[in-house]
Design goal:
Length: about 190
């Protein structure tokens, strides 16, 4: 049986977050410790667009989480927790978060993306396109950079793998280019997949 068919069977052919029945999509919940059916949920196109593009979030759409957060499916619980955290400033999601119980493993999965951290305390490293950089990411230089003290130029298009973050400066990352360990400004890199 295909993954999509299994999801339709589990959900009764409705969005596992909003209950919608139109334009249903298979969605892999990020950072899942599991694979297959346990790592996926069936969601509507509307939910998918708002999850992937936070600037389009309509808080009233997500009032559906009042029901779906009680799902017995861990992947649904994880997405409900993450979306409630994104919407915390609205007021009502905070009340739901206080009621929502996740077991230890499910909570670890929910927190794996950094959702729910107090953003005021977290230093964010952001690339030229606005993507958040994390330690271990790979980036590509978008500009030729003269490396002071090493007498070479790091060429545009050069991949820098396994970067490390400068924790007290959100504009600096570190990585190896041509065998040299260098500090790079985040505005001169873009995250690679």
């Amino acid at each position: 049986m295909s993954l999509e068919r299994e999801l339709h069977k589990r959900s009764g052919s409705i969005c596992e977050l909003s209950g919608e029945t139109e334009n249903l999509k298979v969605y892999e919940v990020p950072k899942s410790p599991k694979t297959g059916l346990d790592a996926h949920i069936l969601i509507s196109q509307t939910c998918l667009e708002q999850i992937e593009n936070p600037s389009t979030i309509d808080p009233n759409h997500w009032r559906c989480l009042n029901d779906s957060m009680w799902s017995e499916v861990p992947a649904v619980q994880v997405m409900a927790w993450r979306m409630l955290n994104r919407l915390k400033s609205e007021g009502w999601p905070q009340d739901l978060l206080e009621m929502l119980y996740l077991d230890e493993d499910t909570m670890a999965w929910a927190q794996a993306t950094g959702e729910g951290e107090d953003l005021d305390d977290v230093v964010k490293h952001i690339d030229a396109n606005g993507a958040i950089l994390q330690a271990g990411d790979s980036v590509i230089l978008i500009k030729d950079l003269d490396v002071k003290g090493a007498n070479f130029t790091a060429k545009r298009g050069t991949a820098v793998r396994n970067i490390s973050l400068v924790h007290d400066n959100p504009e600096h990352i570190e990585g190896r280019v041509s065998g040299q360990h260098i500090v790079i400004l985040t505005k001169f890199v873009k995250k690679s997949n």
